[in-house]
Amino acid sequence: MPRAAANGTEIEYEEHGDGGLPVVLLVSGLGSQLIGWEDAFVRELTGRHYRVVRFDNRDVGLSSWFDEAGVPVGAAEPPYTLGDMADDAVGLLDALGVESAHIVGASMGGMIAQALALAHPGRALSLTCIYSSPSAEAARPGLDILGGAYLAPASAPGGTGTEATGAAAPSREEVIEAVVARGLALSSPVYPPGREVLYERAAAAYDRAFHPAGAARQVLAVAAQEDRTAALRQLRLPTLVVHGDADPMVDPAGGRAIAEAVPGAELVMVPGMGHDIPRQLYPMLAGRIADNCGRAAL
Question: Which domain holds residue 156?
Fold first, then answer.
């Protein structure tokens, strides 16, 4: 896969669909790699006549890692911000020669998408935020969960923090099982993905790039973000907000807060959806995103 120089980092990305079509930029959530946007979902969007770009955020996957910043423990200062990550995304668009795109972000990716739309007027044609929030407040339950998972030095593999404590790095199987357990706890109760699906996803992510120290630094960036509610009131952009009413990681109040702040935003509260995008909902979600993108042309 190709890499692009962007904002002083190297960003791993993929492109799908006709190069002459409008671009949908998919921004991943905390610790999630570009493969978190599954191929089947990407096909739903390309089938609606969009060129789709998905990428690894800094510090995860195959993009630049920031291990020189060390493994954070507790309430450390973040080595970078969500604004820096939004600048990475704009740098990727620059590298691809894309003047403006439809920005779609999930969870932390939705926070980055908001930051991009606010800091870079004209680069976002439309905005879609999936189970996200305008501030850290609604994400506190998730930060508590993920903080415990990622900020403990023993969770990091050799070379990223275990030397300091003498803790043994977890095995591949232990990591995968932990990710599966977390996925079962966070997934949609009405659309359970099943253990086999979660195991397959966790194994693919581990084998592609296991880097919990990077996710720990992203936790700090999410926790340190500024409240964007007031700024979002000034945004004039077709905006779609999708949230599950059974989300245990980012309270549904976060999605409602985005929709209430952005003038004319559409809120879709999905009954029985947790902090995941069930495969059964791919056609619905892609259709809603395409409809929102279409509003930008009006």
Answer: 3-295
Long-range contacts formed by 3-8: CB under 8 A, 24+ apart:
3/62, 3/63, 4/91, 4/92, 4/95, 4/96, 5/91, 5/95, 6/88, 6/89, 6/90, 6/91, 6/92, 6/94, 6/95, 7/84, 7/87, 7/88, 7/90, 7/91
How far is the C-alpha of 223 from the C-alpha of 298, rounded, in Å? 37
Q: Residue 115, exposed/middle/buried by CB under 10 A (0-12, 13-18, 19+)?
A: buried
Instruction: Please count the structural domains in the chain.
Output: 1
pTM for the model = 0.93
Side-chain-side CA neighbours of 176 within 13 Å: the count stands at 18
Query: Which residues lie closer than 8 Å to 294 by C-beta, 6 or more apart?
Result: none
How do residues 207-242 score in pLDDT, each as one tens digit?
Answer: 999 999 999 999 999 999 999 999 999 999 999 999
CB contact at 8 A, 265 and 232? no
**Which tokens sit at 123?**
């680069």
CATH code at 31? 3.40.50.1820
Specify whether the backbone of 17 is left (phi greater than 0), alpha (psi in -120 to 50) or beta.
Answer: left
- Residue 114's nearest CA partner among 80, 83, 139 is 83
- Give the SS3 label for residue 12: strand
Q: Are 249 and 131 contacting, i.e. CB atoms less than 8 angstroms apart? A: yes
Residue 267, token pair as written in the block: 């809120």
Cα 82–Cα 87–Cα 92 angle in degrees, nearest 5: 125
- The two structure tokens encoding residue 25: 């930029």
